[in-house]
Amino acid sequence: MSIERVPARFAVVTGSSAGIGRAIAQALLADGWRVTGMDRAPASIEHPAYVHRAGDLAGPAPELMLDEGDCCADALIHAAGLMHAAPLGELHPDVGDRLWRVHVRALERLANRLLPPMAQRRSGRLIVIGSRVSGGLPRRSQYAASKSALIGMVRSWASELAPDGVTANIVSPAATRTAMLDDPTRASSAPRMPPIGRLIEADEIAALVRFLLSFEAAAITGQDIAICGGASLPV
């Protein structure tokens, strides 16, 4: 079966003001994409093809940050996230709730708005930034729970959307060099250095995302792809 090469040009990227989300948005802009960025922080990107939508993704209806034009997006990339580390006995329900709302519920509501039009056009991409921690790690139970939930959600959508030409994948980094590493809430749970002897760079994650958005990656769906510098290898 021949597949027509239709270049995708428009992406919605959450968490676009810093870290991995910013690196992804900048990479796509450099490739000629239009990008709508979503973040509660002010825009940190100035580009004629970039539109910023400021708002809290943990709010009750993050999809209201979108406008009608955003429903023409060829890709949704959910990179927004936050980290919290705490041991049993010091877990706060409000922290767990916010982690869930940003990582899981925001994706659910945005995907519910943006993915059905992709399926109707029989072309589109969903890429979610997960975490190697999704398998569990001491003091990271609330964070790991929210990231683990993304796997079941994205794989379910991948199965549902595969016949419609829409792929859905997760990219799960190990410790990445971003401002999140300096968050005081994780002082009791320092990041683990990957075996390669350095942290993952946000641009390396953006490069993998760029490939998953490409025509050549059209047969890759439902995968949780680690970019971990060997951290997933047996000890």
Structure description:
This protein is α/β, with parallel strands linked by helices and 235 residues long. Helices cover 31% and strands 16% of the residues. It contains 4 helices and 7 strands. The chain has helices spanning 19-30, 93-121, 141-161, 202-212; strands at 10-14, 34-39, 50-54, 75-78, 124-129, 166-173, 224-227. It has a 7-stranded parallel β-sheet with strand order 3-2-1-4-5-6-7, sandwiched between helices. Helix 1 (19-30) packs across helix 4 (202-212) and helix 2 (93-121) runs parallel beside helix 3. 40% of the residues are buried.
Number of helices: 4
The helix/strand series, from N terminus to C terminus, equals EHEEEHEHEHE
Tell me, briefly, the overall form. Answer: globular
Provide the low-confidence segments as ranges: 1-6
Distance N to C terminus: 44 Å
Beta-sheet strand percentage? 15-25%
- How much helical structure, as a percent, in the residues? 25-40%
Count of extended strands: 7
Averaged pLDDT, please? 90
Structural class: alpha/beta
Rg over alpha carbons: 17 Å
Strand order of the largest sheet: 3-2-1-4-5-6-7
Largest sheet: 7 strands, parallel
